[in-house]
């Protein structure tokens, strides 16, 4: 929905989402956390032809750590707190991936990256050092299809 954490619309986000055609359901599950943290949220996002699961937790001081992402049948385990960039390379185009890696290093330096190779696509996960400006996120998204900025 594009809200910042301090956006005054956050308290009304469920109503806003409903007006946008988004269905949100909260289910509190008994038992241990699937990612071994007491303050855990698991988001299952389903669209017409897309499905994604993100498991994360609040680690204090306003920081969020994503511990597991299920995307395109692949399990991604990021190595730290947000922000994270995911790049889904359906073409498995090494030149495009190299160009993206260089650009990310220039505009949003990263601690590390991991590459997951699948049958249908490769997924690149970048653990970004600092929060990115919206302008940076939009620029990357306009140049590279398949970018997800968390």
Automatic annotation (TrEMBL):
Question: Where is the organism placed in the taxonomic lineage, from the top?
Answer: Bacteria, Bacillati, Bacillota, Bacilli, Lactobacillales
Task: List the InterPro entries.
Answer: ASB_dom_sf
Q: Which organism is it from?
A: Ligilactobacillus agilis DSM 20509
Q: What is this protein called?
A: L-serine dehydratase, iron-sulfur-dependent, beta subunit
């Amino acid at each position: 929905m594009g809200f910042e954490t301090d956006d005054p619309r956050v308290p009304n986000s469920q109503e806003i989402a409903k007006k946008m055609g988004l269905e949100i359901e909260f289910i509190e599950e008994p038992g241990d956390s699937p990612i071994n943290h007491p303050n855990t949220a698991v988001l299952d996002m389903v669209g017409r032809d897309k499905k994604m699961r993100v498991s994360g937790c609040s680690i204090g001081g306003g920081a969020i750590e994503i511990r597991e992402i299920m995307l395109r049948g692949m399990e991604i385990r990021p190595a730290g707190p947000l922000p994270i960039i995911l790049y889904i390379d359906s073409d498995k185009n090494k030149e495009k991936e190299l160009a993206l890696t260089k650009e990310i290093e220039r505009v949003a330096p990263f601690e590390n990256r991991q590459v997951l190779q699948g049958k249908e696509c490769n997924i690149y996960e970048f653990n970004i050092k600092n929060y990115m400006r919206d302008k940076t996120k939009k620029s990357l998204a306009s140049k590279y299809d398949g970018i997800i900025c968390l």
